[in-house]
Amino acid sequence: MNRVYIPKDSTALSLGADEVAAAFTAHGFEVVRTGSRGMFWLEPLVEVDTPSGRFGYGPVGAADVGGLVAAGISAAGSHPLAIGLVDEHSYMKGQQRLTFRRIGLVDPASLNDYLAHGGYAGLRNALSMTGAEVVQAITDSGLRGRGGAAFPTGIKWKTVLDQSVGQKYVTCNADEGDSGTFADRLIMEGDPFTLIEGMTIAGIAVGATQGFIYCRVEYPESIAALRTAIEVAKSAGYLGSDVCGSGKQFELDVRVAAGAYVCGEETSMLQSIEGKRGEVRVRPPLPAIEGLFGKPTIVNNVMSLAAVPVILEKGAAYYRDFGMGRSRGTIALQLAGNLKRGGLVERAFGVTLREILYDYGGGSASGRPIKAVQVGGPLGAYLPESQFDTPLDYEAFAAVGALVGHGGIVAFDDTADMAALARYAFEFCAYESCGKCTPCRIGSTRGANVIDRLLAGDQPERQKELLGELCETMLHGSLCGLGGMTPFPVQSAMKHFPAEFAPRSRH
CA 150, CA 363: separation in Å to the nearest integer? Predict the structure, then answer.
């Protein structure tokens, strides 16, 4: 039977992938649903097997299917929608896919597919090692948290390992709420077993018997994919009371998030999993010592945990050989905003913003100059064109007052209103604040008011002074990163685009 591969992740579904799949089924094709390759401007992307690899067509609509069949899609026939061998496409060829190596190739619900592409090799290796050896491998790999703080993963794990209490937990923060980010979703919908394997390795390493994936409520496809994969893994003995016959236990459940941005902060997430109001806890104690239900808890995000299987499969040195400085391995960069080619790029740390924006993103979708780029979510700094040659590296970004964060990149052309974008940071913080600390709760509302007065010409120099003081108060006085990072977009916009904060005519 003729076979085609069509993604079933949220992006492809929103663009009509189900209708395309139904049309191919009606023409007698076997349709295998996969994850997205991350080339969103080509979705729905349809692929066929050839002796040289997968050959692609996109973007394909249901109305195109008849013409593709007539053109001989099964034999990679010529057609205006043909993009050639997918792995040889300019967008894919230069990537270094470690975490995303299986996505687009496998059926995410098929354990056999996962195993055929190297799945669970890392877990098998981990089961032959002591917990301390596994933790040391993670430490030696240089893996750091793929969130805001970039904290070394091995240190977290060792802290939990060293606790002598009986019950421990592994939690995965999949509450992906940053603007322009979707890497977690692509993993959960396109290769959920890799996240499950990573969490299982973590649990066995530190002696935790229970894990929770805290997935945002706006991701119903992710939640369904995870629950399906967990049941398959459990039935096959990769989860449960006797993981792979080792006598070790690890159970895994999905918890649906509360729909609040602040629940992406680790202690607020733990509160929510416990069924409490999602608000930030005062630290210490750290979650690694007193976390979920007061027990030692690993808290990592999806990208960190999904990187674990390849480290245990191929060794710490293999992973460490990618990257630069203290930023080791690869990072999932998500291209959004005013770009011709939005999507996901996995590259080793060290690639520059300019390469990502133009070699992959293709420049602005509007054709106008790219004026600013916000990296790291809605509270990331705005980088001007003069900083586009900054390498994607935690320390290099910190040196210019920016952060890599979750790797979301949102581009703006020269029509963007930077003062309005700065004001939005305060609005966003005010809306999402849990209200526990004064600098975040009051400062965010006050900040928007100060910008309004500044732009209205009401004692502008005084307002600038107040804005600077307010940002410093929020930066140093907030309990968590929501209030503490809100000044980043404001300060960077004022620094790099000062003319846009001049008083404006009321006409």
Answer: 28
Residue range 42-85, pLDDT digits in tens: 999 999 999 999 999 999 999 999 999 999 999 999 999 999 99
Angstrom CA distances, 44 to 33, 37, 58, 60, 336, stand at 11, 10, 6, 5, 18
pLDDT at 478: 87
Distance CA 447, CA 196 (A): 42
pTM for this predicted structure: 0.93
Instruction: Give the residue range(s) of CATH 3.40.30.10 domains in the chain.
Output: 3-93
Of the CA atoms within 13 Å of residue 70, those in its CB half-sphere come to: 6
β partners of residue 144: 152
Residue 352 neighbours by CB distance under 10 Å = 17
Contact call for residues 216 and 10 (beta carbons, < 8 A): no
- The CATH H-level superfamily of 3-93 is Glutaredoxin (3.40.30.10)
Q: DSSP labels for 54-65?
A: EEEE-S--GGGH
Q: If one looks up domain 323-413 in CATH, what number appears?
A: 3.10.20.600
Which residues of the chain carry a pLDDT beneath 70? Answer: 1, 505-507
- Residue 266 near residue 59 (C-beta atoms within 8 A): no
Query: Distance between CA 249 and CA 206 in Å, rounded?
Result: 12
Question: For position 506, what pLDDT does the model report?
Answer: 57
Structure tokens given for 23: 């049309």
Domain 111-320 in CATH 3.40.50.720? The answer is: no
Does the domain spanning 418-501 belong to CATH 1.20.1440.230?
yes
| Predicted local confidence at residue 203, as pLDDT | 98
Element (H, E) at 451: helix 438-455
- pLDDT value, residue 1: 61
The DSSP bridge pattern shows strands 330-337 and 327-328 to be unpaired
Q: Taking a C-beta distance cutoff of 8 angstroms, is the pair 204, 248 a contact?
A: yes
pLDDT at 361: 97
Q: Where are the domain boundaries for CATH 3.40.50.11540 in the chain?
A: 111-320
Q: What is the pLDDT of residue 405?
A: 87
